[in-house]
Design goal:
mainly alpha
Amino acid sequence: MKDRAEPCIYYVCKGADCKKGFVDVDLKKCKNCSKYRPRKSSVRPESVRNKRQKDKDRHDNWKDG
C-alpha cells in the first residue's frame, strides 16, 4: 500500500464519482489508483542546502556576539 498524503487532482469528494470515471470513490481507493496525480501542497520541505546555511549562519552569529 502506498502512503500518499495528498488527494489526487481528479478526486472530488467521498462517495462521489471521480473525474477519471470511477464510481463511488473514497480517499483510500483514490490514493491507490494507477492514475494518481497529487495536488500541489502549499508547504514545501526545506532543502538540505538551506538548513545547512541556516546552521552555518547561526554558528557564525554566535561567535560575533
